[in-house]
Amino acid sequence: MSERLQKVIAQAGIASRRKAETLITAGRVQVNGVTVTELGTKVDSKDTVTVNGVPITKEQLVYYLFYKPRGVVTTVSDDKKRKTVLDYFEEVPERIYPVGRLDYDTSGLLLLTNDGELDNRLTHPKYEFEKNYVAKVKGIISNNDLKQLRLGVMVDGKKSAPAKSKLIRTDKENKTSIVGLTIHEGRNHQVKKMLAAVSHPVMKLSRESYGFLDLKGLNPGEWRRLRPHEVEELKKATGLA
């Protein structure tokens, strides 16, 4: 059975499907020795596919839940020589990569996998996976501010989807608040921009949960494999089961 080239590359653990498309259009993929740049190209098991001159093989699919510390970049490599999330997975033989991203100064739950199809679904806004964040912000946040966040605020010229928001506690002496915010969108710096839109800049931010997954039992810098029923649940939720 033939499949789209970008899907085959993603299933081999080389990159997510979107990144695989970039590799193809950049002329870095060959099929049977011929460079292919068309995204609609289909291949089957008889075809030899190479990326950057290296033949691909289908890896065993693996899934990890990681407690990302602050001061770590969510990339496979970094030209500024900063610590990346993959530095914590040196013993893992598969070519894994992060699902979505967390900012350098944001801590919390991050998924890593070599399952390009699942990565593609999890990062697609259609599936509306809820992500729960806890933020320390400047100022004492009001009920009206929380209401605005629930209704949606302007972020980069576009109104955000309604969010769940709650006040966890305030520190009147230092004029700061701890706020819980649950969103299902994934725009760049979204939580920071939403809180800035109600005049409460973020001082510290952590992602506490992703859908039904949380950080229970993990400390910053630690990870675990997803359990089979958790993988199955993610696949069901994204229509892959």
Automatic annotation (TrEMBL):
One of its GO terms (cellular component) is cytosol. The keyword RNA-binding applies. Its EC number is 5.4.99.-. InterPro entries: PsdUridine_s_RsuA/RluB/E/F_cat, PsdUridine_synth_cat_dom_sf, PsdUridine_synth_RsuA/RluA, PsdUridine_synth_RsuA/RluB/E/F, PsdUridine_synth_RsuA/RluB_CS, RsuA_PseudoU_synthase, S4_RNA-bd, S4_RNA-bd_sf. One of its GO terms (molecular function) is rRNA pseudouridine synthase activity. SMART domains: S4. Keywords: Isomerase, RNA-binding. Pfam families: PseudoU_synth_2, S4. One of its GO terms (biological process) is enzyme-directed rRNA pseudouridine synthesis. Residues 3-62 form the RNA-binding S4 domain. CDD domains: PseudoU_synth_RsuA_like, S4. The keyword Ion transport does not apply. It is an enzyme of class 5 (isomerase). PANTHER family: PSEUDOURIDINE SYNTHASE FAMILY PROTEIN-RELATED (PTHR47683), RNA-BINDING S4 DOMAIN-CONTAINING PROTEIN (PTHR47683:SF2). Belongs to the pseudouridine synthase RsuA family. This is Pseudouridine synthase. The lineage of its organism: Bacteria, Bacillati, Bacillota, Bacilli, Lactobacillales.
